[in-house]
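Hi L., both proteins are below.
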Amino acid sequence: MHKPHLLLAHEYWRNHLRPSDFAIDMTCGNGHDTLLLSDCLPLGLVYAIDIQEQAVKNTRMRLEGRSNIHLFHQSHETLPPLPKAPALIVYNLGYLPGGDKSITTQTETTLRSLQASLAALAPDGALSITCYPGHEEGAREETAVRAWVNSLSEKKFFHEWRPGSPTLFWIVAH
């Protein structure tokens, strides 16, 4: 029996991160993943990014009083200036839960973002990518992400969990 995708992802994050690491939540949504990353990094730093102003507001409200988080209202397509190489970069693709479902992550910008994120990772850093193919763009995006993951060189190791809906990709750079 499989664990639910988010519980599995969170388990990977907890096992991968050290308290002083740097992590990026590339699609912060309502701030749930950002909160977990903040808890995992009491001596570290978390960047949280989202293209939707409402998502940044929701995350800011959820994380009020935390000093190890910096929020960015921008597309995940471009990384902000980084203080050091991240140990973990997280993507939870799709749309903002409770928001406008017509506003989704887009395949083309996601692929550019993934490539930039992979290049920015610290040695032994990881990408955690959750795809939700339950809507048209999500299905297209998952197909493209799967192809991108399959194209990675032998120096990158990856595992795919929960084929179908949703799918978690865990990629560790070596």
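That was the first. Here is the second:
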Amino acid sequence: MSFTPRKKLTHVRPAWAKESDPVFLTLCCRDRIRDQLANEISWHALVTAAESMLSDHNWNPRLMVAMPDHVHLIADIPRITGIPKAIRLFKAKTTIAGQIDWQRDAFDHRIRNETSVREKWNYVLMNPVRANLCAAPSDWPYTKIWPRNRSPQGEPR
């Protein structure tokens, strides 16, 4: 059996998938060595873009953590916006303002249940600790948690 690698991810939510399922996104910088995201200018651009997209009803972000070379997001993305558009909008809004050189494409994963939400949530929060950037998740300044009432499913607790 031959294997043909996929050249581009579609980021399309299957028709059978629930729209209420949150999406776990990872967006990486092109230069994975240089710190492009864990600084005040980039962080401000990331939060401003996420808030702008929330105001425009393009998504409901739940959690965002910026690492030096990638950002993790958990968000509710309505079908009308779609995952590809949400990724494009977020990258477009942050590229110039945050001086970020994004890698082409992104990783997305639909989260299917509350147990998985909690697992991804903890994984994202612990990312800077695992990378030895801080001792506890609360010490990392590049973390944003949106209030529960803004997200249809609410943040896990």
